[in-house]
Design brief:
Largest sheet of chain B: 5 strands, antiparallel
Number of strands of chain B: 5
Distance between the termini of chain B: 28 Å
Oligomer: heterodimer
Order of helices and strands of chain A: HHHHHHHHHHH
Number of helices of chain B: 4
Structural class of chain A: mainly alpha
Largest interface: A-B, 55 and 52 residues
Structural class of chain B: alpha+beta
Distance between the termini of chain A: 16 Å
Chain lengths: 230, 146
Amino acid sequence: MTLDDALLATELLLAWALILQSCEHLSTTKYDKPLFLLRIACCLVLASGTAPLLSLAMLAVISLIMLHRFQGPYNGGSDRMSVLIVWCLLFAHALPTMGLRETAFGYLAVQVVLSYFVSGWVKLINPQWRTGRALQDVFAFSAYPVSEELRRLADFPRLCWGMAWSVILFEVMFPIAMIDQALLIIALAIGAAFHLANACLFGLNRFFWIWLSAYPSMLWLQSRIVDALW
Amino acid sequence: MIQTIKLLLPGLIPSWKFFKAIEPSPRVQWCMMDEAAQSCTDWQEYRPRPTHISAGSMLRRIFWNPNWNEALYMVSLAERLSLSSSTHSRDEIFKRLKLQLIRTNAIDAGRPCLQFRLVFVLREGTELVQQITYLSKTRRISDIVA
């Protein structure tokens, strides 16, 4: 995958994810209407490919306004990833040399790999996760299960243990997938299924779309590393 | 400028420690009352989750889930408010509660004041317990900008 192809794919997916987010904001409060309408307009310009630098600069400014408006992220990790992608894309367009542009886009890919590895590692070193108790607690009393029925999954410790270890192993082993493109595609498919499950069970739909937006950066970095080595 | 950098840096250099530990989980509860009331006896949970959600609804929510995301924002606000007495978090919770009352036609002229509290659910041994960690002052609903 070339850098231009990866940038274009990321921009299209990012535009889709941010338009969805913005429409959700517009439906819940009228206060920030001008801000989110402007954000949608910037996404449409970005998706059209006519002025990527200008639209990304505008989206970066809007991300700062939103951080002030909500005094941090509105939706935790998904907003953090949105900010990261917007700023990495902006630098990948604005920096003066190809090496610096590649570094900015490669930084995004490295952060996505870390997003899996670090969250797997912190679970691996936590005995509560290794015994499955932590996932039982997620279902039992956390704010995330989308229905009361789902809370009953906490009553199945073996199932929670199996799910917890599946998540831990996938996340900590994710960086290995960077050595081979076929392996990476399989890992990304598993990752997408993982985010889809989180969207269904915990209502984390924004994570699904925004992590997908960052996937082209990993496909590009993997091919770039292979090219550099061979 | 420093505040902007403090807000932006966790986005540019994220920690990614999702679900590192399962912390006590907040619930926002609200109550409408008349001005003479000394204390509330009728606490309602903000957006209680449904008993059941169909597979079709789950799939639809992948594309459209604004209410749930607003509820998760309220969880974030509750966590921030419990860590430090944030005016922003308190005002945002009041504002979102009022919006929800308006949306559900729950405004009651006989009970013009609103109060909320934060109840944290946590595990103690094998039991789940609830702790009230924050009780807001009472506000007239008409004074809340929403």
